[in-house]
What does this fold into?
Amino acid sequence: AQSVTQLDSQVPVFEEAPVELRCNYSSSVSVYLFWYVQYPNQGLQLLLKYLSGSTLVESINGFEAEFNKSQTSFHLRKPSVHISDTAEYFCAVSPLGGSQGNLIFGKGTKLSVKP
Amino acid sequence: DAGVTQSPTHLIKTRGQQVTLRCSPKSGHDTVSWYQQALGQGPQFIFQYYEEEERQRGNFPDRFSGHQFPNYSSELNVNALLLGDSALYLCASSTQGALNQPQHFGDGTRLSIL
It folds into this structure.
């Protein structure tokens, strides 16, 4: 079985400051890793994913995440946040070889960017 | 190109009633997954449909059932509603086996049980 722990339920930060949203996972098998973002009253949007290859993955809007197998972590970072980044962020895993439909999510981290 | 569409957007029911939620996948997708997102929690996987059959199921009771139609659209049915069934129900679509293509989520149906 797999589980995902997001260590911070809320992260307040000022605009243009750096931010890190932490994610640790537990699994007896290899997994794929994902970060999703959810804006108010909307569904989830894929931010970035790690399937294989380079352990550093980047999104088109400046976020990046690094897969650390030894620490079973997949922390999300952005060097300079904008007001528009205010949203809830979910880390998720799915077992290698399985359908990508069966995602196990963490409880989410609410990022609040203040001017 | 329409993405994943869900209906209705909001629904209010009372305990013991039955409810049906609907989902149309993104064009070109053949697989539909359903998730339950309780307030303050991450989404929890209910089940997945492909080729009109339930392929995977999460830890949900038999009160939760589903169906997929030949046009790939899907329904989620919940019987004997409980207060704890109040949640946002999300539908996600994908193409079976296409791991490099992201899953697309709808905006959800918010179900409130009184």
